[in-house]
Amino acid sequence: YERIISKERRGDYLGKTVQVIPHVTNEIKAFARKASADVDVSIIEIGGTVGDIESLPFLEAIRQMRKEEGRSNTLYVHVTLVPWIAAAQELKTKPTQHSVKELRAIGIQPDVLVCRSEKPIAPELKEKIALFCDVDGDAVITAPDVKSVYEVPLVFAAQSVDAIVLRLLRLEAPERDLTQWTGMVQRLRHPGEPVRIGLVGKYVEYEDSYKSLKEALLHGGLAHNAKVEIEWIEAEDLEWPGCCAKLEPFDGILVPGGFGKRGIEGMIHAIRFARERKVPYFGICLGMQTMVIEFARNVCGLERADSTEFDPATPDRVIYKLRELKGVDELGGTMRLGAYPCRLAEGSFARAAYGAGEISERHRHRYEFNRDYEEILTRHGLRITGQTPDGTYVEICEIPGHPWFLGCQFHPEFKSKPLEPHPLFRAFIGAAIEYRKRRRAALETSSEYSHAG
């Protein structure tokens, strides 16, 4: 809509009335084409429910695209619900029929129906759906509930979804090879020994707030054939020293991103515990900033060290707003967003994890490490191991001599994949596994000593 308003103000529409059709729909189509410029197949999702007023411009735009691009270059896949009615002990197709009817009323005939259901859909029910929705029988796809989202590609492959898409789009492709994916799913179903990770956050009552983090941790576990058990810890509940007993059982502690002052002191207590007890620690974005604050307070003696986000009047602003945006109070348009390069120091945890001297990662934050405090922090043992090539921004901080203690300003979870776990998550879980082994060995030695005594 901003693009439309800008065009109108420039006079691009020559004084014509700006309307949903064609102006809004043209922008939607232009965006879709731009996103599809360099790929063979572009998957464009239109959310919401068919018939909702919010989605109608988008549905109209894709209706027009079929006319403009041709049937061999477009494919409509409609995800629909086939509910299980417990009282009748059967699946019902009426919602699907009505949904397709609504689509057809606005000029869209689905090519493929992906039918979400609690249970597998019997062949005779699929035939019924195909008949009443005017879809090929093999294009009615069952999407039943599965234990892990990573099982979905295997479910679809078993129903030849890929072959159907290739046929309808008239594309040639080699035979599918899901060997690696199948192996990954098997490791996920039958993992090795558990490793316990305490995730100390401020949005833990809504686990989906940390969905990407959760998946990235699972990916890190897959790299070691380990079962990652995540416990969500409300940062506001942690007080020193009482939190030590609560944090003792974990093999690794992670503090994720976030904003606002709530829960910050609890995060700092968790970081202090991990630093003093030599528990592997991983801080992401806010987790790196609180790591720097904790070190400044409890190691460097800067008792009032803080971020200007939490205390604008702090005398020791070890974390502060972006230099070029100081004085801007609005939240909008003040983030450092997107990919930035980062150079890694020799002998660092990060360099060992990545196996490279320069990387690129994605950012989403407003506040930065204040390099005015670099000398005092590094003199007391903090090490800056990642920074932008121009030396402006600090990207990674570590504490040498610790089994694994790292904070990064970027969000590595955004780039993690099940077959390609992010290097930092792989390294963090590896360090947590080693910590677990050392602790178990120490307990066994202590037990033997006590028995001998």
Describe the model.
There is one protein chain. The chain has about 450 residues and is an alpha/beta fold. It is about 40% helix and about 20% strand. The protein contains 15 helices and 17 strands. It has a 9-stranded mixed beta sheet with strand order 7-6-8-9-17-16-15-12-13, with helices on both faces. A 3-stranded parallel beta sheet has the order 1-4-5, sandwiched between helices. A 3-stranded mixed beta sheet has the order 10-11-14, covered by helices on one side. Helix 11 crosses helix 12. It is globular. The termini are far apart. The mean pLDDT is about 90.
Put the structure in a nutshell:
The chain is of the alpha/beta class and 453 residues long. 39% of the residues lie in helices and 19% in strands.
Question: What's the layout of helices and strands?
Answer:
Blueprint lengths: L1 H9 L9 H16 L20 H14 L7 E5 L2 E2 L4 E2 L2 H12 L6 E6 L5 H11 L6 E5 L7 H7 L2 H9 L9 H11 L4 E8 L9 H13 L3 E8 L8 H5 L4 E4 L8 H14 L3 E4 L1 H13 L7 E2 L9 E5 L14 E9 L4 H6 L3 E8 L1 E3 L4 H6 L3 E5 L6 E5 L6 E4 L14 H30 L1
Parallel strand pairs: 1-4, 4-5, 6-7, 6-8, 8-9, 9-17, 10-11
Antiparallel strand pairs: 2-3, 11-14, 12-13, 12-15, 15-16, 16-17
Helix pairs in contact: 2-3, 9-15, 11-12
